[in-house]
Backbone:
C-alpha cells in the first residue's frame, strides 16, 4: 500500500492540503512524479535521492511513483521535498512511525546534504494545517517563527532530515533549534517622521485628510520640492494595523517570498514605490505562477507611484478596476488567483514636461502641458480625490519656523477621524472610510449645513462642476468634518474641500481649444 | 473661370509681380491663357523663353486635377478679382493672384497681427492673450499663423473671447501643422478662416514660411510682436510689416530673457514702438488705412473704462450675494494684504506660512476669495490678486 504524507500547495494567498503518495512498483529503478507538477517539483527527484543517500538511507532500487493529490490542480514549489523523502522512507520500510501516520504535515525543501531549507508561503500553509487538524507542522528552522504565528498549531523545526526521522520514530524528545537573535529592532532608529518636513504645513492639512478618509492623493510639483519626502511619511500617520490586517499582509508577503524578517508579523503599514518602468504584471500581479503584484504588496498600506505620468498608460489604466474592487483576480493558463489590494494610492508628477510649470524658466506650451497631463486618463484622475501642488520651500524663509508637526500628532487626528467613520459605517460591510462611499451613501451621510450648501451652490455656479465632482467635494468635506467630529458639513469643511483639486482649476486656465 | 486662375498660379517662373502685369495687360487669366506668343512677349519682364513656355502649357489638365483637390479639401479660392480680397493686401506688389482658404472670409477681414516665439514664456503668453482678447471684444480680427506658442495663443484667446481670427499657414489649408493644433484649426475654420498661398496637400517647408509671414503682415493694419528671440521668424514678419508701412509694436521685456532679445532689439533700433496696452493697436491715428476703423477704435477706447468700472462693481455685488460671509472680512483682508506684501503674486504655501489664522482657516478664506473673484489662480499653484494684469508692465 502506498505511503501517504501531508503537505500543502499554494493558490494565491491561501494554501490547500496536498497528499503526497509514494508507491514502489518494482522493475527497473526510476522515479516518476505526477500530479500536474512544475519543474521545481519534478526536480525534487534529484534532491530527494541525494539527500537520502547522504543521510545514510537507501533509495529504493525499483520504480518509485510519487503522486501529489488532488491530481487536477497545478502545483509548484520545492517545499514538497521533505514530504516526498518521508514518504519514500515510510514506503520502503526504513522506519516506522511512532504514532498515527496522518498526524504531521511537512513543508520544507531539502538540500543535497539532507538539511532543511525554508520556503515561501509557510504562514498560509500553517493556517491550512490548523484547519486540516494536523497534529503538527514540520518546517525548516528559518520558518519556525513564521509558522508559529498561527495559534493552536504545534510547529516543529529541524535542521536535518535525520532529525525529522528520529523525531517521527519517537527516539527522543523534541528540542527546538536555538532561537536566532531577532534582527535588532525593525529599523526603529531610521523611523521617518513628518517633523522633518518643513514649511509644507498647508499641504500637510490635505495629506492628513487623505490619510483620514482613505482618499487617493496626487501631488504636483517641480523636481526636488519634496513630493517623495511627503509620500514616504504617509504610512507613519495611518493608524496601526489590526491583528487581522497584519495577518493578511503577512500572508501576502509570505506567498511572495518577501518576508525578510522571517516569522515576524508585519506590523507596519506597507509602503511600496515601484519604479515607473514597472510592467502591468509587476504592478497588478501575474507571471507564470500568477503571483501577487505591487498593488497587493501595498495591501492595507500605501502604493506610491512617483512620476506617475511616466508610467505606461495601459499600466495605469489596469489599476482602475482593482482600485474599485479592492481585490484583483489574476488569471493565467495554469492558475487563477485572487489577491486583496486595498491600498491608498499616493502619486506624484511634474506639472508639465519640463517640470517647472509656472516658473520663470518653463517654456512648455499649453498643448504640451495638456498632453502631458492627459497621460493620466480621466477615469484614473477621477479616482484621485485630492490633487495638490507641492511648492518648493524657500528654506531661507524658514528661520522663524519651529519645524513640522510630528507624525504622532498627525496620526492622533487621523485615528480620531477614522473612529468617526467606523461608527458611521459600522452597519455597511463594504465601506470603511469616506472615500469608499457610493453616491447614495454620500447623499445619506453628507448633509450640509445651510451655509455650506450656499457656498457649494456659489462654487457650482462659478466653476460649473460636474455632478461627479460635486460628490467628490462632499466626500472630502465629510473627512474635514470628521477630523473635528462635526456631525454635519459646515461651511469651512466645504470651503476647504473646494480647494482640494488644484489641477482641475488650473486646467480651466489653459489656453487651448 | 476658376480653372484659369489655377492654371495661372501653377506656372513656374510666374510670380505675383508678373501675374499682376499679365492680368493688367489681358484683363483675366482666361485671356492670358488664350493670348498669343507675340502678345505675351509684349508684357514687361516676360522673356521669349517664358512666353514660349506659357504657350506650350496651354492645357488645363493639371489645373483640373488641382481644382478637384481643392474641392476634396473643402477649400475655396480667393482670387485677386474677388471682392473679399482685401484692398489692403491687393495693393501690395507681392500679393499672390490666388489664395486658398477654409472657413469664412468676412468682407473686412484685415485686422491686427500678433506674432511671436514658438517657445514663449508665460509673459509672452499673457501679452498675446490679453491683446487678442481685447481685439476680439473690440471686433477687430486677429491675424496670426497658428504656429506653436504665441501664434496659437493669439488665435485661441481671440476665439475664446468670441472674436474673428485668421490663421495664415505655410502649408496647404487641409494640413494641420503642428498636428497638435487640429482642434484649434477646426475652431478657426468655424469662427474665422485659415488661409494659404499654397495649394491643398502642400506639406510645410521652411522656405514657405517667409511668404506666409508676408501675408500675415499684409493682412495687418498693425503688428504686435509679443515676444521674439533674436533671428526669429517674427522679426522677419516685423520687417515686412515695416516695409509695408504698417505700425509695428513690440512688447518690452527683461534684457536678460533670451525670448525677448529680438523684441527689445526692435524697440532699440526704432523699428517698433513700445507696446504697453492693446489700445495702442486699435486707434490708427492720422488717416486710417481702411474703412472699418472708426467704430471699433471708438469702442476700444471706451472698452477698458467699461471693464474697469464693471469689475469693482461686480465684486462687491458678489460679496453681497454671499453675504453670509462667515469668514471674517478681516481674515480676507489679511490674506489680501499678505498677497500684496508678496508683490501681488505668491505661492499658496508661502501665504499659508504667514497667515495668522491657522491652516484650515487659510484654505477657507482662500476659497472664499477665489469664489468672489478677488484672487485668481496662476499656473503652478500660485495665486495673484485679480485685476493685476500680467507679470511685468501690464495694465
Residues:
Amino acid at each position: 500500500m502506498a505511503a501517504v504524507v501531508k503537505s500543502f500547495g499554494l493558490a494565491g494567498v491561501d494554501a490547500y492540503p496536498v497528499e503526497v503518495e509514494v508507491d514502489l512498483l518494482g522493475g527497473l529503478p526510476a522515479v516518476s512524479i505526477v500530479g500536474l507538477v512544475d519543474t521545481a517539483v519534478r526536480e525534487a527527484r534529484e534532491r530527494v535521492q541525494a539527500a537520502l543517500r547522504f543521510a545514510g538511507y537507501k533509495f529504493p532500487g525499483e520504480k518509485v511513483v510519487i503522486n501529489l493529490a488532488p491530481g487536477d490542480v497545478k502545483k509548484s514549489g520545492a517545499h514538497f521535498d521533505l514530504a516526498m523523502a518521508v514518504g519514500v522512507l515510510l514506503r520502503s520500510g526504513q522506519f516506522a512511525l511512532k504514532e498515527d501516520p496522518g498526524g504531521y504535515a511537512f513543508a520544507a525543501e531539502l538540500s543535497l546534504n539532507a538539511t532543511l531549507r525554508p520556503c515561501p508561503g509557510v504562514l498560509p500553509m500553517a493556517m491550512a494545517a490548523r484547519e486540516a487538524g494536523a497534529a503538527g507542522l514540520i518546517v525548516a528552522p528559518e520558518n519556525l517563527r513564521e509558522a508559529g504565528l498561527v495559534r493552536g498549531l504545534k510547529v516543529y523545526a529541524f535542521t536535518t532530515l535525520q532529525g525529522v526521522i528520529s523525531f517521527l520514530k519517537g527516539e527522543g524528545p523534541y528540542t527546538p533549534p536555538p532561537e536566532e537573535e531577532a534582527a535588532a529592532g525593525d529599523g526603529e532608529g531610521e523611523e521617518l517622521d513628518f517633523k522633518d518636513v518643513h514649511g509644507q504645513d498647508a499641504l500637510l492639512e490635505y495629506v492628513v485628510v487623505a490619510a483620514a478618509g482613505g482618499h487617493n492623493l496626487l501631488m504636483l510639483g517641480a523636481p526636488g520640492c519634496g513630493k517623495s519626502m511627503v509620500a514616504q511619511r504617509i504610512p507613519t500617520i495611518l493608524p496601526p494595523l489590526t491583528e487581522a490586517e497584519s495577518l493578511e499582509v503577512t500572508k501576502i508577503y509570505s506567498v511572495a517570498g518577501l518576508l525578510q524578517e522571517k516569522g515576524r508579523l508585519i506590523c507596519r503599514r506597507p509602503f511600496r514605490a515601484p519604479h515607473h518602468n514597472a510592467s502591468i504584471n509587476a504592478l497588478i500581479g501575474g507571471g507564470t505562477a500568477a503571483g501577487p503584484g505591487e498593488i497587493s504588496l501595498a495591501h492595507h498600506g500605501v502604493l506610491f507611484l512617483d512620476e506617475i505620468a511616466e508610467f505606461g498608460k495601459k499600466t495605469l489604466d489596469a489599476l482602475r478596476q482593482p482600485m474599485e474592487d479592492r481585490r484583483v483576480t489574476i488569471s493565467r493558463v495554469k492558475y487563477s488567483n485572487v489577491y486583496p489590494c486595498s491600498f491608498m494610492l499616493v502619486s506624484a508628477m511634474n506639472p508639465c514636461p519640463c517640470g517647472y510649470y509656472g516658473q520663470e524658466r518653463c517654456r512648455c506650451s499649453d498643448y504640451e502641458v495638456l498632453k502631458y497631463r492627459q497621460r493620466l486618463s480621466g477615469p484614473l484622475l477621477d479616482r484621485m480625490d485630492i490633487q495638490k501642488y507641492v511648492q518648493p520651500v524657500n528654506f531661507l524663509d524658514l528661520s522663524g519656523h519651529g519645524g513640522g508637526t510630528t507624525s504622532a500628532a498627525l496620526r492622533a487626528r487621523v485615528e480620531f477621524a477614522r473612529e468617526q467613520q467606523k461608527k458611521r459605517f459600522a452597519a455597511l460591510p463594504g465601506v470603511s472610510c469616506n472615500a469608499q462611499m457610493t453616491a447614495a451613501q454620500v447623499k445619506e451621510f453628507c448633509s450640509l449645513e445651510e451655509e455650506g450648501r450656499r457656498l457649494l451652490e456659489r462654487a457650482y455656479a462659478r466653476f460649473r462642476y460636474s455632478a461627479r465632482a460635486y460628490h467628490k467635494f462632499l466626500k472630502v468635506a465629510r473627512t474635514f468634518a470628521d477630523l473635528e467630529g462635526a456631525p454635519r458639513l459646515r461651511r469651512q469643511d466645504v470651503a476647504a474641500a473646494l480647494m482640494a483639486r488644484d489641477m482641475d482649476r488650473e486646467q480651466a486656465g489653459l489656453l487651448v481649444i | 473661370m476658376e480653372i484659369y486662375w489655377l492654371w495661372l498660379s501653377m506656372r513656374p517662373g510666374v510670380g505675383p509681380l508678373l501675374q499682376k502685369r499679365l492680368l493688367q495687360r489681358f484683363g483675366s487669366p482666361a485671356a492670358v491663357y488664350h493670348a498669343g506668343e507675340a502678345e505675351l512677349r509684349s508684357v514687361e519682364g516676360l522673356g521669349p523663353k517664358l512666353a514660349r513656355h506659357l504657350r506650350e502649357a496651354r492645357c488645363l489638365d493639371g489645373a483640373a486635377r488641382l481644382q478637384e483637390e481643392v474641392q476634396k479639401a473643402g477649400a475655396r479660392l480667393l482670387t485677386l478679382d474677388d471682392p473679399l480680397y482685401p484692398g489692403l493686401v491687393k495693393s501690395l506688389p507681392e500679393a499672390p493672384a490666388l489664395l486658398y482658404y477654409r472657413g469664412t472670409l468676412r468682407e473686412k477681414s484685415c485686422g491686427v497681427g500678433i506674432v511671436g516665439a514658438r517657445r514663449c514664456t508665460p509673459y509672452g503668453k499673457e501679452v498675446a492673450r490679453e491683446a487678442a482678447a481685447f481685439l476680439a471684444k473690440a471686433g477687430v480680427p486677429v491675424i496670426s499663423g497658428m504656429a506653436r506658442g504665441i501664434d496659437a495663443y493669439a488665435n485661441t484667446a481671440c476665439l475664446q473671447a468670441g472674436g474673428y481670427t485668421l490663421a495664415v499657414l505655410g502649408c496647404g489649408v487641409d494640413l494641420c501643422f503642428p498636428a497638435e493644433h487640429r482642434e484649434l484649426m477646426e475652431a478657426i475654420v468655424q469662427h474665422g478662416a485659415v488661409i494659404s498661398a499654397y495649394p491643398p496637400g502642400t506639406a510645410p517647408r521652411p522656405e514657405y514660411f517667409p511668404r506666409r509671414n508676408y501675408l500675415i503682415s499684409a493682412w495687418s493694419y498693425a503688428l504686435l510682436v509679443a515676444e521674439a528671440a533674436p533671428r526669429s521668424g517674427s522679426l522677419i514678419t516685423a520687417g515686412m510689416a515695416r516695409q509695408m508701412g504698417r505700425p509695428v509694436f513690440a512688447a518690452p521685456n527683461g534684457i536678460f530673457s533670451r525670448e525677448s532679445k529680438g523684441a527689445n532689439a526692435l524697440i532699440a533700433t526704432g523699428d517698433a514702438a513700445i507696446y504697453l496696452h492693446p489700445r495702442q493697436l486699435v486707434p490708427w491715428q492720422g488717416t486710417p488705412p481702411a474703412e472699418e476703423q472708426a467704430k471699433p477704435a471708438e469702442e476700444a477706447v471706451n472698452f477698458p473704462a467699461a471693464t474697469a468700472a464693471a469689475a469693482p462693481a461686480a465684486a462687491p455685488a458678489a460679496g453681497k450675494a454671499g453675504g453670509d460671509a462667515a469668514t471674517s472680512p478681516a481674515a480676507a483682508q489679511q490674506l489680501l494684504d499678505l498677497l500684496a506684501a508678496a508683490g501681488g503674486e505668491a505661492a499658496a504655501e508661502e501665504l499659508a506660512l504667514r497667515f495668522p489664522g491657522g491652516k484650515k482657516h487659510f484654505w477657507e478664506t482662500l476659497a472664499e476669495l477665489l469664489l468672489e473673484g478677488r484672487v485668481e489662480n496662476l499656473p503652478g499653484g500660485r495665486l495673484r490678486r485679480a485685476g493685476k494684469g500680467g507679470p511685468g508692465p501690464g495694465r
